[in-house]
Amino acid sequence: MLHHIEIYVRNLAATISYKCAREYIVFVQVTEKYKKFDYNRCRVGLNHIAFSCEHKSTIDQIITELKNRQVNFLYDNNYYNSENNFTIFFEDPDRIKVEITLEKSL
Q1: pLDDT (tens digit, 9 = 90+) per residue, 24-43?
Q2: Separation of alpha carbons 30 and 89, rounded Å
Q3: Among 9, 35, 73, 102, which residue's Cβ finds the most Cβ atoms within 10 Å?
Q4: How many CB atoms lie within 10 A of CB 53?
Q5: Which residues does residue 9 pair with via DSSP β-bridges, in sequence order?
Q6: CA 11 → CA 7, 16, 52, 56, 83, distances in Å?
Q7: Which domains, and CATH codes, for the chain?
Q8: Residue 58 parent element (H or E)
Q9: What is the pTM assigned to this prediction?
Q10: How far apart are CA 99 and CA 3, in angstroms?
């Protein structure tokens, strides 16, 4: 069972923390000597982080907050909508892809 994920970021003030039940994500300010190295999800390592929601209203609130913060949404429609789920994709300030999905089976 996942307990937490810790991610180094370039600008700690530009991040938003996440907590769901017992699991959470911790953001840590990277030291100056490592800021010169860029993250790329196409290299070996983390591709993206995915979260699930139980209510569409939660995703709607997240979308509003992200738009207010001028966050970069991914893909033309900003979301994937099918019979079984609704998903948004966006990037954090360091370009880590984040996915949030509403699954009807939840």
Answers
A1: 888 888 898 988 888 777 77
A2: 24
A3: 102
A4: 20
A5: 29
A6: 12, 11, 26, 30, 38
A7: 4-103 (3.10.180.10)
A8: helix 56-68
A9: 0.74
A10: 19
